[in-house]
Automatic annotation (TrEMBL):
Top-level taxon: Bacteria
Domain Fe/B12 periplasmic-binding: 46-289
CDD domains: YvrC
GO biological process: cellular response to iron ion
Pfam family, one: Peripla_BP_2
UniProt-recorded name of the protein: Iron complex transport system substrate-binding protein
Keywords: Signal
């Protein structure tokens, strides 16, 4: 507990010492996730966010009122869920976006939004968190974009404290071999992905080798071979129906968990609620630590 209190103190002091007590100076030039240098003449006031994790971060910074629209999948917080929708990553409504006259569109580095919006004279900034530490670096970047650097520092400190609170509990726990399924075809997560890092922080040991990549499609035989103690992302009944899986340790001990939709979305988005999602995983892997 003493170590935890020291860590919390360090995080608090870090918040005070981080830059952010001064206003951002515009024009502001940033390098986005497409490798472009993007110059903002002033803090944006009419923004469309086309990635759910970015939408959540913008709102957590206190800039939700500057959003005039979001993608079809941005459903949190409720204020963002009520905003006009402008399509998805690969089927955006370009005409509607242009007609809304945003002064900035926050896009993913995937999809093909940058070119048509550039031709239409609409400024874009690609912000796409993928690794665990990206959660914090993108929050800092968005804090600069919206001239909310102090809020970004506080948000990062709060999320790091949420994560640290779980890590303190799981740090010395015996590792639990874990399979996390993100799609039943099946796709899983590699150790280097942000979700893979969360498995480790929750006291698990990911059965997927790093060599397979961050979000690989795996062979069902790999799961049989690794024989995990816990499975996440599917139901016990689904696991039992798969050839060769009924005798796996996780199935025999009934430690197969399909998360509720809201928790599943929270887990899949590298954003400000990641600490809450981490605790959800840790509770499945180490229920004895939360009694």
């Amino acid at each position: 507990m003493k170590r935890f209190l020291l860590l919390m103190t360090a995080l608090t002091l870090g918040t005070l010492l981080l830059p952010g007590a001064w206003a951002v100076r515009y024009p502001l030039t940033l390098t986005d996730d497409l490798g472009r240098e993007v110059t903002l003449k002033e803090a944006p006031r009419r923004v469309i966010s086309l990635l759910p994790s970015t939408t959540e971060t913008v709102c957590a910074l206190g800039a939700c009122e500057r959003l005039i629209g979001v993608d079809d999948y941005s459903d949190y917080p409720p204020q963002a869920a009520r905003l006009p929708k402008f399509g998805g990553l690969y089927d955006p409504n370009i005409e509607a976006i242009v007609a809304a006259r945003p002064d900035l569109v926050l896009i993913s580095k995937y999809g093909r939004l940058e070119e048509p919006l550039r031709r239409a004279g609409v400024p874009t900034l690609a912000v796409h968190p993928e690794r665990f530490e990206d959660i914090f670096s993108k929050t800092t970047l968005l804090g600069r974009v919206f001239d909310l650097e102090s809020a970004a520092s506080r948000l990062n400190a709060r999320v790091r404290a949420d994560v640290a609170r779980v890590e303190v509990l799981t740090r010395h726990a015996r590792r639990v071999s874990t399979y996390l399924e993100v799609d039943p075809t099946p796709y899983s997560v590699g150790p280097q992905s942000f979700m893979g890092v969360m498995i480790e922080k929750a006291g698990g040991s990911n059965i997927v080798p790093a060599a397979l990549g961050e979000f690989p499609r795996i062979s069902p035989e790999l799961v049989v071979q690794k024989n995990p103690q816990v499975m996440l992302g599917l139901t016990l009944e689904e696991a039992r129906r798969r050839p060769g899986w009924a005798g796996l340790r996780a199935v025999r001990s009934k430690r197969v968990y399909k998360l509720p939709r809201d928790l599943d979305l929270m887990l899949s988005r590298p954003g400000p609620r990641i600490g809450v999602a981490l605790e959800v995983i840790a509770r499945r892997l180490h229920p004895e630590l939360f009694r």
